[in-house]
Amino acid sequence: MKLKSALYAVSALVSVTATATIAEELTIATVNNSDMIIMQKLSPQWEEATGNTLNWVVLEENVLRQRVTTDIATDGGSFDIVTIGAYEAPIWGAQDWLVGLDDLGDDYDYDDIFEPVRNGLSADGTLYAVPFYAESSFTFYRKDLFDAAGIELPDEQMTYDDFAEIVAQLHDPDNGVFGTCQRGKAGWGENMAFVGPLVNAFGGKWFDMDWNPTIDSPEWNAAITYYVDLMNNYGPPGATANGHNENRALFADGKCATWVDATSAAGYIFNPSESSVADKTDFFQAPKQVTDKGTGWFWAWALAIPTSSKNQDAAKDFLAWATSKEYVELVGESEGWVAAPPGTRKSTYANEAYLEAAPFAETVENSILAANPADATKDPVPYTGVQFVAIPEFQGIGNYVGQQISAALAGQQTVDEALANSQRFAEREMTKAGYIK
Amino acid sequence: MARAVTPSRKAFTTVVAGLLGLMMFFPVLWIFILSFKSEGDAIKAPMEILFNTGWTTESYGAVQERSDYFKHFWNSVIISVGSTVLGLAVAIPAAWAMAFVPGKRTKDVLMWMLSTKMLPPVGVLVPIYLIFRDLGLLDSRVGLVFVLMMINLPIIIWMLYTYFREIPGEILEAARMDGASLRNEVIYVLTPMAVPGMASTMLLNVILAWNEAFWTLNLTAANAAPLTAFIASYSSPEGLFYAKLSAASVMAIAPILIMGWFSQKQLVRGLTFGAVK
């Protein structure tokens, strides 16, 4: 009996010691959005199951980007898990800043992740970040206003010319409805997210095959002239201050007849407690013009592990949990299916409960599957990315061009001047970076 | 002879000053109002927000539920008070020496110290980050106390220097004639006369350190993050967080605002006594 008790005691001690040695404290740096808030709320379940603990560092997107870049570049090791976007994942992966994630365990269903999403987060065939949610862009429109004006949607993807005609018919500022609301706030992730696919639709591209910028091309000029005219004639006043959030608020408040923006905002617009147009909104594909390539953007927020992390195994375990099919189900059941992370897994779009809660699901799925970062322009280009170019220099160039276009929209300069300035800046940056010899 | 002030002129200046004051305070007031609105109401037109929406404390509840306010608050207190006290300990002897025993190059030294404030902080981010990494100071309060002390040191020394210059050197000389040691001279003669200046320097530096957002965001992660990081966690370009961001901002600025109100007299007296005459 004494021996049995002693054995029990020893085994309990071994078990406690083993738990103590494997219990890790992980620091996770993430952005502030509703999906991440849900993840933070549900993560104690993972902590309880594994004995590990998570310290959360939540920062605004641009602050986080700068903070994490500094830490990874200096091998600071402050973070074990970081939230990064589709722009950073392939660049940082190629620079060996991130741990490869092709070994998250046999239970982890890689094939269930949409292929464009997987490709967008890989470099040289290695997956460097696992998607938490993904989005494309499509057109939100007010069914009631379309019906009242007798506008019927074509079966096929409409052109931007058709779109402008419809917008002109619906523009009714006297009754507080603007024909269209699009992003005007400067920034590569703000106005350029809309302008990039617009330029693709008009047959334009950022660089030719020799990495020479082509921002002063007739295609860019046609696209930006269209954008400036559309917004000045049928957009809300002060559109240069409007980014995603401002337009989202305007649309939800019934002030916009159309809005081309992130598919991930559909859940919000469909939520009657946050939107006054929840039962009056529907969606169609973002318009095309001379080509239908690259007309809807591609973006994903994903989780990655910096190579400087000292707790990589535990971090991988968390990633496998937070981006799994089971996690999507957990969110659906605990938070409501409309809140399930969209755009990443085929199984989500095969789930009856999700399809019922999210009537926009099929359009979102089609938009994401149609967004191909590897083939987003009419002519061949040396880069990948739909609304961005996956090179480190793009952030600076995109921001500058965004400012120039915003200034053109505000009437501070002409479209020609904005594009000429942008071209000069891009040429200088690309020469400095060694792309142009 | 004092110039006569007519009642109409007095009323005019009062109205202008009041309007200017309101303009300066309005952003804080608006944040306060938004913090008591729901997210849906917080994005409505200003007049609608003021007159057609209800009031709620749900944002404060949501912020407290998601973030550990008191942890950030204590980090802010320790970092701002710690860096100010350490800064004063270094600056008082330095300012004394330059004010009462000036050398040939005192003016140059003062200007050189001020010139360190002319460099954008991001220019030295990577070197400081590497030093912190090697010394194990990343995400530590000790590291931040030290960095904020260094950053505010030129301002502390300049302010104290100008206050000390106002004090006649003869008084100190008299104390020395009476046999006071250097220590006694500083503690019993200089300090009582310089208290208003030292108090305003201290208050101003606590405020500067409390609001410092570059280094406190870049050198912290989970453990040493002060209230600046607490606010930053509610800012988002995708998703509506205006009400929660406002609530977080009110919670972050309230302590320093209250402290500012209570110490307003000393602050103004100190500022007008020396540096910014």
TrEMBL record, chain A:
Gene3D superfamilies: Periplasmic binding protein-like II. Keywords: Signal. PANTHER family: ARABINOSE-BINDING PROTEIN-RELATED, DIACETYLCHITOBIOSE BINDING PROTEIN DASA. One of its GO terms (cellular component) is periplasmic space. The keyword Signal applies. It is found in: Periplasm. It comes from the Bacteria. Residues 1-20 form the signal peptide. Pfam families: SBP_bac_1 (PF01547). Belongs to the bacterial solute-binding protein 1 family. This is Sugar ABC transporter substrate-binding protein.
From TrEMBL, chain B:
Residues 73-263 form the ABC transmembrane type-1 domain. Keywords: Cell membrane, Membrane, Transmembrane, Transmembrane helix, Transport. It holds the Pfam family BPD_transp_1. Its main location: membrane. The keyword Signal does not apply. The chain crosses the membrane at residues 12-33, 73-97, 109-132, 144-164, 185-208, 214-234, 241-262. The keyword Transport applies. One of its GO terms (biological process) is transmembrane transport. One of its GO terms (cellular component) is plasma membrane. It is a multi-pass membrane protein. It is found in: Cell membrane. CDD domains: TM_PBP2 (cd06261). It comes from the Bacteria. Belongs to the binding-protein-dependent transport system permease family. This is Mannitol ABC transporter permease.
